[in-house]
Design brief:
269 residues; alpha/beta; Rossmann fold; seven-stranded mixed beta sheet; 16% strand; globular; AB_hydrolase_fold; hydrolase activity
Length: 269
């Protein structure tokens, strides 16, 4: 479908690839852009219609004014953007695949307009990153404060340290891919986005999610402990299943893409 020249979907580089009765929206996470899905696109496009776009924080978006620091202080505005893009592209009953922060964004959007979604596939998702007395998110508040401080003062140095930890130090090409995406996003946006992501808490929202969910988790993810997958499976109101991929890192679409596609095709079948 041709979208209006000044539509949000056009501004965010939305595009459709492949053909098939099933429409899959692939939604990237923190610090990346739609190219992060490049390895799995050819493996899905033969049988499915794929929809991709870039979030306003992405370095791939030309109009830098689209990322309003005052607006994007929570995931709700992103969920509204997602709904707008789906509506503008006249999509119906989509399968939503969201990585990391986008998984929670998809959940929020599904509570606002459930008729748009057939199923949600949540890839290395977390509703909250900071530990509490009765919840293991993976980080102490001091860890996140240190992370934000380092991004503010030593962005390029932080990228060099964070990229191999988040991805998989054994996969140099994928580390470089994430490194370059982070660099193109820029420090100012990264600081704002990191605060939004790492201080978020959407645990209470999970009981409102009624769309069937598949939770895909890495067996060894520095950002999302293994218990989070079980937590999501327990708390999401709709029917949910948990799939654990044996891998290192937070990016199965980069470092374990064949395993990820196998799981996705199993879910879609």
């Amino acid at each position: 479908m041709v979208t209006p020249e000044k539509s949000l979907s056009t501004a965010l580089n939305a595009r459709t690839i492949g053909s098939g009765n099933e429409t899959i929206v692939l939604c990237h996470g923190f610090g990346t852009d739609q190219s992060i899905w490049d390895k799995i696109i050819p493996l899905l496009a033969e049988n499915y219609t794929l929809v991709l776009f870039d979030w306003p924080f992405s370095g791939a978006v030309t109009d830098k004014s689209l990322y309003d620091h005052a607006k994007y202080t929570s995931f709700e505005p992103y969920a509204d953007d997602l709904i707008t893009i789906i509506d503008e592209m006249d999509l119906k009953c989509v399968t939503f695949v969201g990585h990391s922060m986008s998984a929670m964004i998809g959940c929020i959007a599904s509570t606002k307009k459930p008729e748009l979604f057939k199923r949600l596939i949540l890839v290395t998702a977390s509703p909250r990153y900071i530990n509490t007395d009765d919840y293991e998110g993976g980080f102490e508040s001091s860890d996140i404060e240190q992370l934000v401080s380092t991004i503010e003062s030593q962005y390029e140095n932080w990228i060099s340290i964070y990229a191999p930890i988040a991805v998989d130090p054994n996969d140099v090409a994928s580390v470089d891919k994430f490194h370059n995406c982070l660099k193109s996003m820029g420090a100012e946006v990264a600081i704002s986005l990191a605060k939004t992501v790492f201080y978020s808490d959407y645990r209470d929202m999970l009981e409102k999610v009624q769309i069937p969910c598949t939770i895909i988790q890495s067996s060894n993810d520095m950002a999302v402990p293994l218990n989070i997958g079980h937590y999501l499976e327990e708390k999401i109101k709709g029917v949910s299943t948990l799939e654990i991929i044996d891998m290192i890192g937070h990016f199965p679409h980069l470092t374990a893409h064949l395993k990820l596609v196998e799981v996705l095709k199993g879910v879609l079948r």
